[in-house]
Structure formats: C-alpha cells, structure tokens
Design goal:
The complex is a heterodimer. By secondary structure, chain A is an all-alpha fold. Chain A contains ten helices and two strands, in the order ααααβααααβαα. In chain A, helix 7 crosses helix 9 and helix 8 packs antiparallel against helix 9. By secondary structure, chain B is an alpha/beta fold. In chain B, the strands form two sheets. A six-stranded mixed sheet of chain B has the order 4-5-3-6-8-7, with no helix packed on it. In chain B, strands 1-2 form a two-stranded antiparallel ribbon. In chain B, strand 4 and strand 5 form a beta hairpin. Classes of the chains: A mainly alpha, B alpha/beta. At the A-B interface, helix 5, helix 6, helix 7 and helix 10 of A face helix 13, helix 14, helix 15, helix 16 and helix 17 of B.
C-alpha cells in the first residue's frame, strides 16, 4: 500500500511538473514518455535496491534537465558528426563534468529560452553526487550499480567524440541523476545528521528552479 | 645502500628543479611585469634610502599601486638587489630558489605523510611527488617570476612539514607557527589559507598533538603566533587591508546584486516574502562564490587551457600535464579506498586552496589558487605509485607500460618547454610587458634633449617599469611621485615623475614641441614622423613608436 501511494505521488508530481501550462498535444505526449522512463528505471533499480529506486524516482521527477526535456518536443537525434580534433574532444569531455554545465549554466536546447542561472542539476546535487559515486565505486556490488559507474565514465567519451542531437546528453543526464539519487539514499541511511539539512537546501533550489522556469522564463 | 640511492635520486630531482627554474630566468618570461618591477624598485629604494618608493620607512605592507602588497617577498629580494643590482635576475631568483626548496621540502613532507602506509614504499611516493612538482608547468611558471604566492606556498608547505616533525619533537611547533605567519605576510590568499590549514591540522591530528607533554610548546606557539599576527589583523581592518579586497573581491562585481533585484522585480508583488527568499543578494553571492570555487576543479582549466590571464598561462597548456590526469583520478581513488594516515589532510589542502581565489571575481585564477599545486602533485604521485606497484606485481612485462608512459610524459614535458620558450613570447607578446627595457635604454640616450617625455599608459603601470630600468634615484622619486585616485579595481598609478609623464597619447601631445612621445601603434599613426620603433620579443609586433618633436 505504502509503495502504491509512493508511485502514485511520483506519477502525479512528474505529470504536474511536465504538463502545467502545456497546450501543444505533441509536447503532452512527450510528458507521458517521461513518466514511462521514470517507471521503467524505478522498477529496474527496485530489484536491487529499494531506497535507491525511490530516491531515483524522486530525483528524476524533479530534475531540471528532465523537466525541460519533457516539456518540449525536441529532436534527440540530429545529424551525427565525429570530432577529430584531440583538443576539442578533451574540451568536450571535461565540459561534461564542468560545474558550469552541471550546476550553473547547462546547455539548454536552442528551441527553449535560456533557463537563466540553472545548470543540468541543482547545486546541492554536488554533495549527493560525491556520496553516490563513492558508494557506487567502493561498495556497490550489484549489476545496476556497476553499470551506472561504467556508463558514468564511458558516456562522456561518446559525448566528446560524437556531436549531433541531444540523445547522449539526455542519457548522460539520467546517469548523473541516478548517481545523485544513490548519494541521497546513502546519506539517508548513514549520515542522518547531514541528510535533513541537505534535503532542505535541495528543496530551496528546486523551488528556485520552478520559480525561474515558470515565472521568469 | 638504499638511503644512498634515495639521496642520489633526490639530488637529481633537486638539480633538475633548480635547472628548470633558473635557466634563462632573466629572459623568460620575456619582459618584466609591473608587480615584479614594483618589488625590485622598492627593494632598491630601501637599500638606497631606508624607505619604500613613497617614503614609508621599512614597511611590512607596501603601498605600491595602492594595492598594499604584503612585504616579505620584497625583503627576500632586497639582498639579491644589493648583490646583483636592480635587474630581472634579482627579482626572480628568490622565487626560483624557494620553488626549488619547495620541491625539496615536498619530498620530506610526503615521506612523513605516507610513513605509516605500509603497503607501498613511502620513499617512492615522496620521490615521485617531488619529481612531479619539479617539472609541473603550474609550479615552474610561478617559480620563474617574482611572484609572492610561490614564496607563500613554500612557507605553508614547510610549515606543514614542521608540524609533522613536531609530532615527534614538540619544539618544532614554533618554527611551524612562524612559517604559517610568514606566509600570511607574503601573499593575500595565504591570510585565508594558512589559518584554515592550521585549523585542519589541529582537527585531524588532535589525538596526536594535544598531549600533556606537548601543552607547553603548543601554548608557546599559539601565543608567539598571535603576537606576530596582531599587526596583520589590525591592518586588515584598515584601508590597507580592505583596499585590495574592495578592488578585486567578489563584492566589487555588482552583477549578483542587480540580478537579485531584477528577478525580484519580475514578481508581481516585489515585496513578497517568497521573492525575497528566492532572490536576494546573499543567495546570489553565495552561488557566485560556489561557482568561482568549483571552476578551479574544471578539467579544461586544469588540463587543457589553463588560466585565462595571459600572464598566468602558457598557450595550449593546462595547469597540469594531461598525461597526469589518469593518475590523479587513481590517486583520489586510492586515497578514498585505502585511507592512509594523511588522507584527510591532503583532501583538506586541496579543498581550501581555491577558497581565497573564489572570493575574487576573476575565477579560476591560477595565481591566487597556487597552493593547489602541492596536493595535486601528492595525489598524482600516490596514484602513480600505487599503480606502479600493482602493475609490477601482476604483469611480467610491466616495464613496457612504463616505457610507453614515460614516452608520453616526456612528449608532454617537451611540448610544454617548447610552448614556454618558443611559443609563449610569440603568441602573447605583450603578456609580460616586453619592450620597456629596450625602450628605456633608447630613451636614456635621448632624454637630455627634451623637456618632457610622454609615455603611453596603455601597458600596466608604466611608471614603475621606467623607474626600475632607469634606476631612478629613489630619494628624488619619493619627492616627485604621487599616486592618482583609485580606478574601478582599486588600483592607483603615478602619472608623472621628473620629466616623465604617463597616460594616453593623443593628437595634441603629438604636436607639442620639445618633447619625446612614446605611444603604441594605435596611438601614433603611420603618418607621424616616427624616429624609432620598439618590437616585442616576437620581432614582428610593434610595442612602441617614438616621435621626437
């Protein structure tokens, strides 16, 4: 019963954040796809780790990256270009991990107005990312944990070498959210003193994003 | 035998470090920047008159461009100016020596940090760390100029080393405390980093140091330190202390404040509590600070293109060799996994190093966050060492890997040297204000024929470069020179002394009789009667054009 209420709440929050204000039918369809993606990820992770699955569902529902993607009809696959310049590949690789991309500026698609002062994640995610990555690298032994770590290191290479479309960024965004969610579940279990202050700060940044997106856009 | 082998290795590393730091030091970096000239000329002024350029007797903080520079490096330069005269070598040599000594100290420090780590050889990690620092582009760059952060980093590193010595012999708490205080009198950033480092050391090693038998020494060191730091604390609250921060500090940039107001204004009722909570200057400045701070860990800054300021960077180079990147990651991995004795301290050192820099509006800043180079070198060395022993144990042909890696490292190192000695003066010809030496040499032969000499103000603080190369008598300079009002960044300059006038060169000046006019190609058109052209080090780009009326 508890689980069903949780899932229902997540679905409502996800849909609410993605549908409010939308008029275009194709954009509404994208929102439903988003709910489906969250559900699939939730059920896959749940097989291995319930807390992580819940945290992932929450973070995927409120992720600025996924909210904006799910509210617009973007072409994920553009014409593909291979980057041959070593310097450009390196810059692309490091830019994926850059604070500007992750927390302060993002690379929002041209077809949306810039979501000013917002990166792909919320600033407090940096703490969750640290704890999540630490936990996944050193302690997590299951397949899903190993896969996420593997993708975390491999995906930026693809992003660096292949240009075109936002598909890789989309997937990479999900991976980052999953790591961050792992950090949240880890903090909830092991560092309870840190957990509540960070959740409050996280909420503040979430409200700030909602304000920036819905009021200031 | 083992000790001899280690000593020989250390000797080789130190010789390499010294050679890389002093070879052609007068000519590369090509030119002399205004801060270096200020250090040199003030030291010269003290030798000649016992006062700085503006007549302050033996100051601890130098007024200079109204940026009130901490004074220790000036006093370190002083004996060199006395010995070798007022030239580039005298200003840069103390930094090169301290840079080499840092490499030496890092060896012994890492041995202390890793001593309790039994699985691999502490001497090997120490030698690797000091070698990485010896050839580090970041450390080499700031060891080859008259830069204060290099001296401050030496003091902090040695202070940490003496702290570890004090764990065995508590008398070392006093030199440790003295060195941290010295770093605070050497460079602005250290006023934040040194206290944070002391707090970190006290917290991480509280169980070891806070013992009954150490109490006397710790108490004495604290009192000794407080007495020495009191004048500095007092000065921090005076104009001297605040001027620098008001010029380059994060609050000098009003962007976050305007942004908060702009966003608040977009809400229907701008006085709403919610809009105040979401959009206020405290939050915006905090976000700006965190943004500035995190930029120092950006891979592009560290491994690809380095600092944005031309004076602080070598073209096409990051602050660290790209080939070190995998070992830096491995170093972090092994530090977190194996948790050696010093794990917390190394991470703490890395995390506090960019704090002072993040409080300024230019970020990332290689100069202000220079302390990062030490923990980065240690972590990389640790990652390399762990990997070295792992591969050695598991693979028969491990040496093939090292051969390959050595080749890559050598390529990266040679590439850096090429960029530094060949490309740097060509790509950024004006970065180090090259040309003033030739200019002053020329002007000296002509100056008696003219009533006034106008010098362009396009380059940074030209007055001090003229005073430096002219070896202008300090007693006269002290009487004649007056600082102008501060500019937007809090800096002042001197617009004239003797027959020299500094500022923009316009058409009216070009027509003025009986004067020598020195301008840039943008200020003096081709149509003017140009009697001499001075070029940058690249030999192609004009630095100055001279007109004689």
């Amino acid at each position: 019963m508890k689980e069903k209420i949780f899932i229902l709440t997540i679905i409502l929050v996800t849909l609410g954040l993605r549908i409010i204000g939308l008029k275009n039918t194709s954009e509404i369809w994208v929102s439903f796809w988003s709910v489906l993606i969250i559900a699939v990820i939730y059920f896959i992770i749940k097989r291995y780790d319930l807390h992580w699955a819940r945290a992932s569902a929450i973070f995927l529902a409120v992720s600025p990256w996924l909210i904006i993607f799910s509210r617009n009809y973007f072409s994920l696959f553009g014409p593909l270009d291979i980057v041959f310049s070593a310097k450009e590949i390196l810059q692309n690789y490091f830019s994926f991990f850059s604070p500007k991309y992750l927390f302060f500026g993002g690379i929002w698609p041209n077809s949306t107005k810039d979501v000013s002062y917002q990166g792909m994640m919320y600033l407090p995610d940096i703490i969750f990312l640290f704890f999540g990555l630490k936990e996944l690298v050193f302690k997590e032994k299951n397949v899903i944990g190993k896969t996420v770590v593997y993708l975390f290191f491999v995906f930026p290479f693809l992003l660096s070498v292949v240009k075109g479309g936002l598909f890789f960024n989309f997937i990479a965004g999900i991976i980052m959210v999953l790591i961050s969610a792992k950090g949240l579940s880890c903090l909830a279990e092991k560092q309870k003193k840190l957990f509540y202050p960070f959740v409050i700060i996280y909420l503040l940044f979430f409200i700030r994003f909602i304000d920036l997106y819905f009021v200031h856009q | 035998m083992k000790i001899k082998k280690n000593n020989l290795l250390l000797f080789f590393i130190i010789c390499l470090a010294l050679f890389l730091r002093i070879w052609q030091i007068s000519n590369f970096p090509a030119g002399l920047n205004a801060d270096e000239a200020a250090i040199g000329y003030n030291a010269y002024s003290l030798i000649q008159t016992g006062r700085d350029e503006f007549g302050h007797p033996w100051p601890m903080i130098f007024q200079s461009f109204n940026d009130f520079k901490p004074g220790i490096y000036f006093y370190l330069v002083l004996p060199f100016v006395k010995l070798f005269g007022l030239n580039e070598l005298s200003v840069r040599l103390p930094s090169a020596i301290l840079g080499t000594l840092t490499v030496f100290v890092v060896y012994f420090l890492v041995r202390k940090l890793m001593l309790t780590k039994k699985s691999i050889d502490a001497d090997f990690i120490a030698a690797t760390a000091s070698f990485i620092l010896a050839v580090s582009p970041w450390h080499l760059h700031f060891s080859r100029g008259g830069w204060e952060p290099n001296a401050a980093t030496f003091f902090i590193t040695t202070g940490v080393y003496f702290f570890f010595r004090a764990m065995e012999s508590p008398g070392f708490f006093i030199p440790s405390s003295l060195l941290f205080i010295l770093s605070m009198y050497t460079y602005h950033s250290s006023r934040i980093i040194a206290p944070l480092m002391v707090v970190g050391l006290a917290v991480f090693y509280k169980k070891i140091i806070f013992k009954k038998e150490n109490f006397k020494w710790i108490a004495f060191s604290v009192i000794f330190g407080l007495v020495l730091v009191t004048p500095l604390i007092k000065s921090l609250f005076s104009e001297r202390g605040t001027s620098r921060f008001s010029g380059v500090g994060i609050f000098a940039d009003k962007g976050p404040l305007w942004r908060a107001n702009e966003l608040r204004g977009m809400h229907k009722g701008s006085s709403l509590v919610v809009s105040k909570i979401l959009h206020n200057q405290y939050l915006e400045y905090t976000i700006r600070f965190v943004d500035n701070y995190l930029r120092h860990f950006d891979g592009t800054f560290l491994f690809v293109s380095g600092d944005e300021i031309q004076r602080n960077k070598v073209p096409e180079m990051g602050q660290i060799y790209l080939v070190e990147f995998p070992f830096l990651l491995l170093g972090i991995y092994y530090l977190l996994k194996k948790r050696p004795f010093s794990q917390n301290l190394i991470f703490w050192w890395l995390l506090i190093s960019p704090v002072a820099s993040a409080f300024t509006f230019q970020s990332p800043h290689a100069y202000r966050s220079f302390n990062m180079v030490i923990p980065f070198s240690i972590i990389t060395a640790y990652g390399f060492s762990e990997f070295y022993f792992l591969i050695k144990k598991r693979f028969k042909f491990y040496f093939l890997f090292y051969f390959l890696y050595f080749g890559l490292f050598l390529w990266n190192f040679v590439f850096y040297l090429h960029q530094y000695y060949v490309q740097y003066p060509q790509i950024y010809p004006s970065a180090w204000e090259y040309g003033f030496k030739d200019l002053v040499k020329y002007v000296k032969t002509r100056q008696d024929k003219f009533e006034k000499i106008y010098v362009t103000g396009k380059y940074d603080q030209p007055y001090i470069l003229f005073a430096f190369y002219l070896k202008y008598p300090p007693e006269e300079f002290q009487k004649e020179a007056k600082l102008t009002e501060r500019d937007n960044f809090g800096f002042s300059t001197v617009d004239h002394f003797g027959r020299y006038y500094f500022g923009p060169v316009d058409q009216n000046k070009l027509k003025e009789p009986n004067c020598l006019i020195i301008g840039t190609p943008e200020e003096i058109p081709d149509s003017a009667t140009i009697t001499k052209r001075i070029y940058f080090k690249d030999g192609k780009t004009e630095a100055f054009r001279i007109v004689e009326n």
